[in-house]
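Mods, move this if it's the wrong board.
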Amino acid sequence: MTGKFGMFRWFLDELPKLREAGVIDSDTEENLQQYYRNRLAMAPPPQKYFLMALSIIGSVMIAGGIILLFNYNWDMLTKAARISIAFLPVALGVALSFYTLIAGRSQVWREGAAVLTSTGTAVAIALLSHIYHTGGTLSEFMTLVLLLSLPLVYIFDSITRATLYAIGIFMTLGTWNTSTFLPTAFGLLAGILPFAGWHLLREKSPYRTWMRYLAMGFALFAMIVFGGKYSLGLFLYTVCAVFMLASMRLRDNRERMCRNPWLPASFCLLLVLLAIGTCEGGGIFEIIQHRKTPEGVLYFWLVEGAFLLGFVLLFVRDYLRKQMDFHRLMMLVLLLIALLGTLLEAHDVDQLFMRIVLIAYMGILGVTLLMRGCREVDMLIFNGGLLMCALLIGLRFFDTDIGLLPRAIGFILLGLGFIGANVFFSRKLGRAKSTEVNHAEGR
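Not the wrong board. Structure tokens:
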């Protein structure tokens, strides 16, 4: 966001020079000035994020100070006094929340109110359980805190509370292996998904990029809790295909890597999954029998079905927008291969077939990425294809029954080939840019 508005400012400084050089006339300059100044006026000031951070830190410090203040001589207080103190932080949070909403305060106040209220709720629960000696585990405590704080995420549109929620769900994993936790975990995920989806789909959302990072956290939680209930391999391949497909549109829109975290994360996961699959074949789609319960299978397919639905919607969206290409189709093929591998594994089919399929898929994908990188003079795509081909060749090379010396020599040759290809491609990229500059000057 900052880089984009920085380019707007640079372009505004360049407009008078373009007019003086006769590239544009005065009317065009005036129209461009008005348009880009309006865009800059919509940009959030840097002080907003600084003040938001200060308000969050301040709210946490206030809540912590209240706890420390009353922790002194706690045992000397009566039970009624302790109960009153337990509800004091949440009462302050609620008061601040009502003031923020009624007065229509800024987002900085909303973030602070959400954090203070949720922190006060957690303190009240902790103190009441201590007063009445109810006991309980950290997982049960965090589950209750998250369920009570979830409405605050929506009421205040709080990205800070959503971030704390994303961290907090991993603290509920102490009892994740029990069947009774599955509905709770499903509810925790389902409760936050509308908020995440709103900011991911809304192009003008100031939290859109950060929500992309949080989305990976929610997917990781889903994999930990539900993936092992039937076939973790199928789940991993599905999640990888969804995030890889979603990252392609961001890549087409020339989003910077820091704004498109799905691309490196999903590509690295794809490399790992294909590497394992080409060595073990169908074994990666193994159905986990010792955790296979009717309830576990049900929730597995509920979450797996949600990811499959997400993939279908993304695929149809790209098709309708005429953004379909070969590598998007390859993600569809990847998903079909994962479903086929799971089906064959359920019927105890020899793993060799799936191993051959995954080797062929990895080879085709790697070679086509290389070709696309060369055609579009894109070093990122070129290196992705080169890395995939090198990994496939390396795995097959070291999988054969040959001596240590040939293996070492082969590894050195692969490394030299990787470096040589990058040097060659860098020179080609430089020549392409020089040709483009000369062509522009010739005009």
